[in-house]
Design brief:
- The complex is a heterodimer of chains A (about 400) and B (about 725).
- Chain A is built from 15 helices and 3 strands.
- By secondary structure, chain A is mainly alpha-helical.
- Chain A has one domain (about 35-100, about 140-395).
- In chain A, strands 1-2-3 form a 3-stranded antiparallel sheet, covered by helices on one side.
- In chain A, helix 5 (about 90-115) runs antiparallel to helix 6, helix 6 (about 140-160) packs parallel to helix 15 and helix 11 (about 260-270) packs across helix 13.
- Chain B is an alpha+beta fold.
- Chain B has 3 domains: about 60-245 and about 255-260, Penicillin-binding protein 2a (Domain 2) (Alpha-Beta Complex), CATH 3.90.1310.10; about 265-355 and about 565-690, Beta-Lactamase; about 360-515, Beta-lactamase, CATH 3.40.710.
- In chain B, a hairpin with a 5-residue loop joins strand 11 (about 295-305) and strand 12 (about 310-315).
- The chains are: A mainly alpha (about 400), B alpha+beta (about 725).
- Chains A and B meet through helix 6, helix 8, helix 11, helix 12 and helix 13 of A and helix 1 and helix 2 of B.
């Protein structure tokens, strides 16, 4: 040991100080929101079990390996954690400078989907195939860049202390920034993501302190837009069918109402304690479609019952509670808006996803944050957690 | 105190953040509430739906129990046939949905490939037969006539025939021992109807759509015991119908066996004798009509006198019960239910009704006794009896002088009973009847069990008819409109109608005297008369005739005996019964039936008989012959067959000859006796539950030889 080639003196103190920086009282690790992290990780862990249960018998997609999806889900989870770490390390403030670039890249990726490079799944052209069984869904990243971009614009003059609230011109710029990718996603058409983005825009505007008129106007525009879309027949038949089936699930139990009906049977039959992991007959019988992704909650409902399903809602409640606390506690508007955007995103997407399996929302192709199988969505939500953590960590501390 | 400027923390933003938080948590609460509603409140409902989603039931048919005769010889059982079935679930797993396999199968079975495919396809609104209308999870029979070689080919090359199996399967069969058909008594099976499937759906014994149910005869009345309990295999299947596992299943429980009191040998004799007698009658000329007798239908019943058990029951025209096996075709069905063949499905022993003629006179005798006469009172058996200018003749206008009731039975004197019946009619008030008329003649008919079913354990027995005052009134009410339409009667029938219109609601003197000798509107069935004569033989007990003797479970461990039941006693004292018995013995020895029992060993086996010849308007006379010994009662009838002893006599004598082993000269040879006394014991049951069959090979050989001789003779005559 005495012949150690590196003198301890050179690296030791440095390492110690890095470690110290990370762990000392008032350090990054100390200031992280551990409750938020644990709740989100808990959701991903439950998700791993549910993905496993939904896919271990499905030889036609799991390449003969019952753990195929489980392992990939775990991999995505760890990559997600790493992305969160990177996001914290970079920090939401430093990202501010990179927002135009990130925004541009994500819009370009979304446009790529519309080219022959895009892949169509379930009538939606929302993926870019990367080969080796991987594909990305640019809409997920757009949720982040729209939040960051709008926050950057809306908070710039307020955080500089020029104004109390964003002026009309800034709001118009911010809305324009959001409108471009929303239009692209509409063309895919990925209606679920459009719905999420509209809600995100609304949340962002709310938190920015923009004039009430903008809020009211946006809600009205959203409503009339929806009516227009419906009346003008822009929607594809499958989308109309989803709404029709939502309005009346008994309409055609073998056809369009099938998914919602089977999903509800799966969840309802779980009862209080569920049938036990791997014991769900609806799940093993593959009566519910897209069960590892959009309909993952039905596995929880059937196999883990009200207790398991309630736990997922509770964990999501903890995540959102922490996110709200972070939004409230930060004093800079930029951080507040980013946090509010993330809250609107996660809350609405969770409500829509679980709500559709429970029959209180129409069916839309959206993953359940943290829980559903799917790389892009997993990465996006963990980056979002990174942003929240960063806002908390970098909060201006009162002396 | 904070020294940081409160940028971006305007009250507006703070309030809005609180609003967002409230909104977010109300969304989550909504989810939680809805989840509770679905899972906890309505969970049971969805659990049921989920269960129905993925459990498929495959019914395993139970093997139907056998029907045996009193010696354990099967008269209905099952034979094992090689049934080739196709399993759709397996076929659908193949890339071409099993097309190649089915073609291969068609080649082995030497069937057309299209036919095999059609049998395996599922029925729906647009698919014509042949198609499978059962559960798609049920193996679909392609043929039940595969040879052992074909089955072997399929089994040895199992890899070439995925989803195809060739299994021995039980199929109903009627072995017809000794050549006896026992057709109407056995009944038949036919496929279950949709309604029946629906009804039994939730019971513990559901029907397969390919199931068969007993539709008549013993197959119907003992259907429940015979059919057993179908087993149910429950498979969990996924969305595509692929079997994932097996959940709780119930084994099929084979049906119980029914031991009857029938003796197949006696049945064979009875059927043969009935047929022969009818053929013989058709050769005889009917003096009344100038034509040969039609002898269109007939029946013979052999009962155990002391129990009412049925030893044999034959009805002609008959049919081969095996016609029904494997589904009856349209042509056969037409034949069995058609007028041309005179409805062979009808069991004339319990469903054929006719006026009884003189065999009714035992009831008239009882009525005379009830009316206050004694057995030894003498009555004038004149050649005719006159009522207000209407002359009622004795049979063939014979006259026997003053005789007692016993002798009146022996010689079947009509005028004696006319006299008594007329006198009673007058006592009851004549055309203006007393409020409480005795109506002994009608009362006795009811008490002897006429006008209602005997309660035999096969379905669709008819009650017959006692034309009493009530019936007359009802009948008149129902028909008066058509009778009274006739204003200017010309034909005989019109005149009768006109008369009926005026007085048909009343019991007229003519009605009463006609009735007393078993003519007129009275209707009886052979089984009713057999029950009555058996009661006279056994000291007065009217038994419910029964075919079923015991139900034996498939393991042979439980034997449920069916005890004889009675539905009353004859309303006659022991002493009077003895007198009637004596008179009926007289009929066989010196009365109207004596010529048919010439040489009968009367001392050893006292024979009793009563002949009857009933007139039917517009038809030839019905032949009736009611007889009994100490142990057996035999009643026979031939519609449009002629006189009682003439048409039915030889057949009845031959049945007794066979029962007791008496030869043509009257010599009894116990070795030849089929059943010198009723079979009391039940057949023995082996340790493995098998019921032993004591097949009478000697009798079978004898019958075979006789049949060969008969056909040889027939050929000779043809040449």
């Amino acid at each position: 040991m005495s012949t150690h080639s590196y003198p301890l003196g050179r690296y030791g103190p440095q390492n110690a100080s890095t470690w110290h920086r990370l762990t000392a009282r008032g350090s990054v690790a100390w200031r992280l929101d551990w409750l938020l992290l644990l709740a989100a990780a808990g959701l991903s862990a439950v998700g791993a079990l549910l993905v496993w249960s939904a896919t271990r018998n499905r030889t036609e997609i799991n390449q003969g390996d019952p753990q195929y999806f489980l392992l990939r889900h775990a991999l995505f989870f760890f990559i997600g954690i790493a992305l969160m770490g990177v996001t914290i390390w970079v920090g939401h403030r430093r990202l501010r400078g990179a927002v135009p670039v990130l925004y541009g890249i994500s819009v370009l990726l979304a446009l790529l989907v519309l080219t022959p490079l895009g892949a169509t799944i379930n009538g939606q052209r929302a993926w870019i195939q990367l080969g080796a069984g991987f594909s990305i869904q640019p809409a997920e990243f757009l949720k982040i860049t729209i939040i960051l971009g709008m926050a950057m614009l809306l908070a710039a003059r307020v955080d500089a202390g020029d104004r109390d609230h964003p002026d009309h011109r800034t709001v118009v710029q911010a809305l324009a920034l959001a409108a471009v990718p929303v239009l692209v996603i509409m063309l895919m058409p990925d209606l679920g993501s459009v719905m999420v983005l509209v809600v995100v825009v609304l949340g962002v505007l709310l938190a920015s302190g923009a004039s009430n008129r903008w809020i009211v106007g946006l809600v009205a525009a959203g409503a009339s837009g929806a009516v227009a879309v419906w009346m003008l027949g822009i929607l594809d038949e499958y989308q109309i069918n989803r709404f029709a089936a939502f309005a009346n699930p008994a309409l055609d139990p073998a056809g369009v109402g099938y998914n919602t009906n089977q999903a509800r049977i799966a969840i309802g039959s779980g009862g209080l304690g569920g049938k036990g992991l791997f014991e769900g007959t609806q799940t093993t019988g593959q009566f519910v479609p897209e069960q590892q992704t959009d309909f993952i909650f039905t596995v929880a409902g059937e196999e883990l019952g009200f207790i398991g399903g309630g736990l997922i809602i509770l964990l999501m409640g903890v995540v959102l509670w922490r996110a709200c606390a972070i939004a409230r506690e930060t004093t800079e508007l930029y951080g507040t808006i980013v946090a509010a955007g993330v809250i609107a995103w996660l809350a609405f997407q969770t409500f829509e996803n679980i709500g559709m399996t429970l029959g209180i929302m129409p069916v839309a192709g959206l993953p359940l944050p943290f829980v559903s199988y799917g790389g892009t969505s997993m990465f996006a939500v963990w980056i979002a957690v990174g942003l929240l953590q960063s806002i908390k960590v970098q909060r201006p501390v009162s002396a | 105190m904070s020294n940081i400027p409160e940028t971006g923390r305007t009250p507006r933003v703070t309030i809005r953040l609180v609003a967002i938080q409230i909104l977010v948590f109300s969304l989550l609460l909504t989810l939680g509430g809805r989840l509770w509603y679905l899972q906890v409140r309505n969970g049971a409902e969805y659990q049921e739906e989920a269960a129905g989603n993925h459990v498929q039931q495959v019914v395993q048919p139970a093997v139907r129990g056998s029907i045996l005769d009193a010696r354990g010889v099967p008269i209905a059982d099952n034979e094992t046939r090689l049934v080739v079935t196709a399993n759709r679930t397996e076929l659908m797993k193949q890339p071409d949905d099993g097309a190649v396999v089915l073609e291969r199968l068609a080649e082995v079975l030497r069937m057309k490939p299209d036919e095999v495919k059609m049998r395996v396809r599922l029925c729906d609104a647009e698919t014509p037969q042949p198609c499978w209308n059962g559960s798609p999870y049920q193996p679909i029979p392609v043929t039940d006539e595969a040879s052992a070689q074909q089955a072997m080919q399929i089994r040895e090359r199992a890899e070439d025939f995925p989803g195809i199996s060739a299994e021995p399967t039980a199929v109903r069969r009627y072995p017809a021992p000794y050549g006896s058909h026992t057709s109407q008594v056995l009944g038949y099976l036919s496929p279950v109807t949709d309604e029946e499937i629906e009804e039994a759906k939730d019971s513990d014994s559901p029907f397969l759509s390919s199931d068969q149910i007993g539709r008549s005869g013993l197959e119907r009345s003992y259907n429940k015991a015979l059919r057993g309990d179908a087993g149910v295999d429950r498979y969990e299947v996924d969305k595509l119908g692929r079997v994932m596992g097996r959940t709780q299943s119930e084994q099929a429980e084979p049906g119980s066996s029914l031991v009857t009191s029938m003796d197949s040998r006696v049945q064979a004799v009875a059927e043969k004798e009935l047929k022969k007698a009818m053929e013989e009658a058709r050769k005889q000329n009917d003096r009344n009509t100038g034509r040969n007798y039609e002898a269109d239908a007939g029946a013979v019943v052999v009962l155990e006198s002391k129990t009412g058990r049925v030893v044999s029951m034959a009805s002609n025209p008959e049919y081969d019960p095996n016609d029904w096996v494997g589904g009856i075709d349209a042509k056969d069905y037409q034949r069995l239910t058609g007028k041309e063949s005179n409805y062979p499905l009808i069991n004339r022993a319990i469903q054929g009704q006719a006026a009884p003629g003189s065999i009714f006179k035992v009831i008239s005798t009882a009525a005379s006794l009830k009316a206050g006469h004694s057995f030894n009172d003498r009555f004038d058996c004149s050649s005719s009896y006159n009522i207000g200018g209407q002359v009622f003749k004795n049979f063939e206008s014979e006259s026997h002088g003053a005789i007692n009731l016993g002798r009146a039975l022996e010689v079947s004197c009509d005028t004696v009973f006319y006299r008594i019946a007329h006198e009673q009619w007058k006592k009851d008030g004549g055309m203006t009847p007393n409020k409480k008329a005795n109506d002994w003649f009608y009362e006795m008919a009811h008490e002897f069990g006429l006008g209602k079913e005997t309660g035999i354990d096969v379905p669709n027995e008819v009650p017959g008819r006692v034309p009493d005052r009530q019936w007359k009134k009802d009948y008149w009410k129902a028909n008066k409109d058509s009778w009274c339409k006739i204003k200017d009667p010309k034909t005989y029938a019109d005149k009768i109608a006109k008369e009926n219109c005026v007085s048909g609601m009343k019991m007229r003197a003519g009605d009463s005297v006609n009735y007393s000798i078993g003519q007129g509107d009275t209707l009886v069935t052979p089984i009713q008369m057999a029950t009555i004569y058996a009661a006279i033989s056994n000291g007065g007990t009217l038994y419910d005739p029964s075919l079923g003797k015991a139900v034996v479970n498939p393991e042979g461990t439980e034997v449920e005996e069916i005890k004889p039941k009675s539905h009353g006693k004859l309303p006659v004292s022991k002493a009077e019964l003895k007198e009637i018995d004596k008179a009926l013995a007289g009929v066989a020895t010196r009365g109207t039936a004596a010529w048919r029992f010439e040489g009968w060993p009367q001392k050893k086996i006292p024979m009793h008989a009563k002949t009857g010849t009933a007139e039917v308007a517009g038809k030839q006379t019905t032949s009736w012959f009611a007889t009994y010994t100490e142990d057996y009662t035999v009643v026979m009838t031939i519609s449009q067959g002629g006189t009682g002893s003439g048409a039915s006599g030889p057949a009845v004598r031959n049945i007794y000859n066979a029962l007791y082993g008496v030869d043509a000269k009257g010599k009894q040879n116990p070795a030849n006796a089929l059943l010198p006394e009723p079979e009391k014991a039940l057949p023995k049951i082996d340790r493995d539950g098998q019921i032993q069959a004591r097949k009478d090979e000697k009798f079978a050989a004898r019958e075979k030889k006789r049949a060969a001789e008969a056909s040889g003779k027939a050929e000779e005559t043809v040449e």
